[in-house]
Automatic annotation (TrEMBL):
Entry keyword Cell membrane: no
Pfam families: PTEN_C2
Domain C2 tensin-type: 114-170
Transmembrane segments: 37-59
GO molecular function: phosphoprotein phosphatase activity
InterPro entries xrefs: Formin_homology_domain, Prot-tyrosine_phosphatase-like, Tensin_C2-dom
Annotated protein name in UniProt: Putative ovule protein
Origin species: Solanum chacoense (Chaco potato)
Coiled coil regions, renumbered to chain: none
Keyword Transmembrane among record annotations: yes
């Protein structure tokens, strides 16, 4: 199976791809004890590999507890790879997706359906003082599938710009 590489520095896997990997792996491993899985990751792919191994262990019920399983896999990895993580911390998203895998028996719909989400607000608790006047102008980048183009499942970048208001202080 070929899986996607990084997209803008972020490893992305769809629920369909995760489901395909888990079912294919389960099917292959259940055919006999002589069957093994050989997984390889390219440079920078360790977070995705760690997630997929954790998901497989939870899916096959060899481990329970998403955080515990993910921690165990990360501890097994080469220590030099742990220092080369990408700029974004993937672990919170990985834990959320591992919870989806762990709850698969509670939900009749697996994998969960894709649905459009609306971002209502972003709360920044501590505002950095970049200009010395107590303010900053954040730019948010959101990646996902375009809900208007169903045939194209590739991730797109949705750029959100903050509205420019001069001298706004709260």
């Amino acid at each position: 199976m070929d899986y996607p590489r990084h997209y803008e520095g972020c490893p992305l896997l769809s629920m369909e791809m995760i489901n395909h990997f888990l079912r294919s792996s389960e099917s292959w491993l259940s055919l006999g004890q002589q069957n093994v899985l050989l997984l390889h990751c390219e440079w920078g792919g360790w977070p995705v590999l760690a997630f997929m191994l954790s998901a497989l262990l939870i899916y096959r019920r060899h481990f329970n507890g998403e955080q515990k399983t993910l921690d165990m896999i990360y501890k097994q990895g080469p220590h030099e790879l742990l220092h080369l993580m990408q700029p974004l911390n993937p672990i919170p998203s990985q834990l959320r997706y591992l919870q989806y895998v762990a709850r698969r028996n509670l939900n009749t719909q697996w994998p969960p359906l894709d649905r459009a989400l609306t971002l209502d607000c972003i709360i920044i608790r501590m505002i950095p003082n970049f200009d010395g006047k107590g303010g900053c102008r954040p730019i948010f980048r959101i990646y996902g599938q375009d809900p208007l183009i169903v045939s194209d499942r590739s991730p797109k970048k949705f750029v959100l710009h903050t509205k420019r208001k001069s001298n706004v202080v709260r």
